[in-house]
Automatic annotation (TrEMBL), chain A:
Name of the protein this chain belongs to: Putative spermidine/putrescine transport system permease protein
Any GO CC annotation of this UniProt entry: plasma membrane
Topology versus the membrane: Multi-pass membrane protein
Signal peptide location: none
Positions of the ABC transmembrane type-1 domain: 65-253
Record-annotated membrane-spanning stretches: 7-29, 64-87, 99-124, 178-199, 206-227, 233-255
Naturally occurring in which organism (per UniProt): Planococcus koreensis
Origin organism lineage: Bacteria, Bacillati, Bacillota, Bacilli, Bacillales
Automatic annotation (TrEMBL), chain B:
Subunit structure of this chain's protein: The complex is composed of two ATP-binding proteins (OpuCA), two transmembrane proteins (OpuCB and OpuCD) and a solute-binding protein (OpuCC).
Domain spans labelled ABC transporter: 4-241
GO MF entries: ABC-type ferric iron transporter activity; ABC-type quaternary ammonium compound transporting activity; ATP binding; ATP hydrolysis activity
Reactions the enzyme catalyzes: a quaternary ammonium(out) + ATP + H2O = a quaternary ammonium(in) + ADP + phosphate + H(+)
Record keywords: ATP-binding, Cell membrane, Ion transport, Iron, Iron transport, Membrane, Nucleotide-binding, Transport
EC number: 7.6.2.9
UniProt GO cellular component terms: membrane
One Pfam short name: ABC_tran
Name the UniProt record assigns to this protein: Carnitine transport ATP-binding protein OpuCA
Length: 278, 358
């Protein structure tokens, strides 16, 4: 029995390895290669030229990473602020035209972003919002908000109004009710939505390119010219850097969320031991 | 006096989307609950008792009518400022807070300092028999314990009125009895005014000073348990109180006679002439010893025993009297000579009969 489950584990592990880890190996090799040409299985010579370029101050990598994270952070924060009341309204109320409101919010998932961005670009040009981080943040909201709203809506659906009624009967006003009862319940949904929102915003190329018009430089903007025919070694290095940035951001979020729950648990576990001693 | 007064409260719900489903409405209800009184609303599910409770709580907005406590009009005051407390059918303990934080929640909302509110919460937990459980999380407790915590949480902030919406109906019978006793004791200790909603008449009878029977959005009758049981105002109330012996007939010339003619006796002038229903409590029906005359002032019928069933400590007996079936309760000793299929004589003291006007 145990052996069998070990085999199954091994099988899944190899699949995960093949699908997720393996593709990174050529990327890694390519980033340290010097003229890697067909039909060689491995590069002929190695060099850290690409990494030197990418990590050097003159390439503008670090400001781009900063801009990417700043935009993703602001976008996600704004998304949370928008999605929570929206999800509340959509999942709790019946009103005429609800389907329309939902359709508009979820449209960016279905409609290709390029279509919308062309119009947005024109409008932003008129408003003078292009070439600004603010404009890019606004444009990033449309493809990310639907996921956030969706995730928070699911959390809201599992929260019966009784909880808030109970808090009300204990004297909690609207703010306290939200902060002490609703928000803790929404936390997992918000975390799920925030991860999606961060990832989508980080990987946005087209929208950033059009709205930022080359003035707002995020990592994908730097990365793109190298992929589309520039220097494959540098493109590989950037790709790895990008993946690292995304994974690190998710990890930070995950750890802080776990800490949030752990702190809650720790305080009660500590209390429990006290309780037993009494 | 801080009586809770419900004045002509009324609520009409819109027709639901399903067609043919009549719109539910709560008829204007007028009720005064005295300070420190334990008042139960008893009625079948869907009779509007929970709606009335939520109107009192302010969780629903009434169409018209007012809610007063003492000299304060609370009609327009939001729920959170009414200083009422409520225990729901589910314990609704906040899952991310420890038990004592849950209990202290109301005090926290009143901006009571942390140490003070936790001390009070622990003291309250001790009162409900959960000393030392304060630091656990709610999901580590059993259903009964959770409901105790919910009770402690409701009482800790000294509410003006404690509202309870079938708080024990999700518990198993033994636990329910335990909780009943605990609630009765604690209510007396704190002398808190309680408005209790239930469909369990045993629960209502055990706990209440007074009971209001509700049906289809109407408050049918208010009184203490014995009054209601012995003198129901309508057949609906009688049926809901578990009185099955309801026999149609008429009162005229000082006599009641049933439609089938099997029940006929002189009534005092308490009962008005006209059509009515005779209500016989099962305990009031007695087996008559063989070959004896019915004593004066009693109703006498004879019938055939259809069924005898042992219930805890007594026998439930169904007797066919003409077209009517009577349900009676006999002690084990009384039943010794009776078997199913046997013809028996029954009598009821006229003091124990009750007639409801049609």
């Amino acid at each position: 029995m145990e052996r069998r489950s070990n085999l199954i584990r091994l099988f899944f592990f190899s699949i995960v390895f093949l699908v997720i880890v393996f593709p990174f190996l050529p990327l890694l090799l390519s980033s340290v290669s010097f003229g890697w040409q067909w039909p060689n299985v491995l590069p002929e010579s190695y060099s850290f030229r690409a990494w030197e370029y990418v990590l050097a101050g003159s390439s503008g990598t670090w400001p781009a990473v900063g801009a990417s994270l700043l935009i993703a952070g602001i976008v996600t924060a704004v998304n949370i602020l928008l999605a929570v009341p929206a999800a509340n309204a959509l999942s709790r109320n019946k009103f005429t035209g609800k389907w329309l409101a939902e359709a508009i919010i979820f449209a960016p998932i279905v409609i290709p972003p390029f279509v919308a961005v062309m119009g947005i670009h024109l409008t932003f040009l008129r408003l003078g919002l292009t070439e600004t981080i603010f404009g890019v943040v606004l444009a990033h909201l449309s493809p990310t908000l639907p996921y956030m709203v969706r995730a928070v809506m699911i959390s809201y659906n599992t929260l019966s109004v009784d909880w808030e009624d109970q808090a009300r009967m204990l004297g909690a006003g609207p703010f306290s009710r939200f902060f002490h009862v609703v928000l803790p319940h929404l936390m997992p949904g918000i975390a799920a939505g925030a991860s999606l929102s961060i990832l989508i915003s980080l990987s946005q190329y087209l929208i950033t390119f059009l709205i930022g018009s080359g003035q707002v430089v995020t990592l994908p903007i730097l990365l793109f010219p190298f992929i589309s025919g520039g220097d494959p070694a540098i493109a590989s290095a950037y790709s790895l850097l990008f993946a690292g940035m995304a994974i690190l951001t998710l990890l930070v979020m995950d750890v802080s969320l776990k800490n949030y729950y752990k702190n809650k648990k720790a305080s009660t576990v500590k209390g429990q031991q006290r309780g037993v001693e009494m | 006096m801080n009586d809770l007064r419900i004045i002509n409260i009324k609520k009409q719900f819109k027709q639901t989307e399903r067609r043919g489903d009549p719109a539910f409405s709560l008829q204007p209800i007028q009720l005064t609950i005295r300070e420190g009184e334990f008042f139960s609303l008893l009625g079948p599910s869907g009779c509007g008792k929970t709606t009335l409770l939520k109107l009192v709580a302010g969780l629903l907005q009434a169409d018209s009518g007012e809610i007063w406590v003492g000299d304060t009009n609370l009609t327009k005051v939001p729920s959170e400022s009414r200083k009422f407390a409520m225990v729901f059918q589910q314990s609704l303990l906040f899952p991310h807070m420890s038990v004592e934080d849950n209990v202290a929640f109301g005090l926290k909302m009143q901006k009571v300092g942390k140490k003070q509110r936790l001390d009070k919460a622990r003291a309250m937990l001790e009162r409900v028999g959960l000393a030392g459980y304060g630091s656990r999380l709610p999901d580590e407790l059993s259903g009964g314990q959770q409901q105790r915590v919910a009770l402690a949480r409701a009482l800790v902030a000294n509410p003006r009125v404690l509202l309870m919406d079938e708080p024990f109906s999700a518990l198993d019978p033994i636990l329910r009895e335990e909780m009943r006793e605990l609630l009765g004791r604690i209510q007396k200790e704190f002398r808190v005014t309680v408005l209790f909603v239930t469909h369990d008449r045993e629960e209502a009878f055990y706990l209440s000073d007074r009971i209001g029977i509700m049906n289809e959005g109407e408050l049918l009758q208010v009184g203490n348990a014995r009054d209601l049981y012995e003198r129901p105002a309508s057949t609906t109330a009688a049926t809901f109180l578990g009185l099955k012996n309801i026999i149609e007939g008429t009162v005229s010339d000082g006599r009641f006679s049933s439609i089938g003619g099997n029940f006929e006796f002189a009534v005092n002038d308490r009962f008005q002439a006209g059509q009515g229903f005779l209500v016989l409590r099962p305990e009031a029906v007695e087996l008559m010893p063989n070959a004896s005359l019915p004593p004066k002032g009693s109703l006498h019928v004879s019938g055939v025993i259809q069924q005898l069933r042992f219930k805890h400590g007594f026998y439930l007996c169904k007797v066919q009297v003409g077209d009517e079936q009577l349900e009676c309760v006999f002690s084990s000793r009384q039943r010794e000579n009776a078997t199913a299929g046997q013809k028996v004589d029954l009598m009821v003291d006229l003091k124990d009969v009750w007639i409801v006007e049609k």
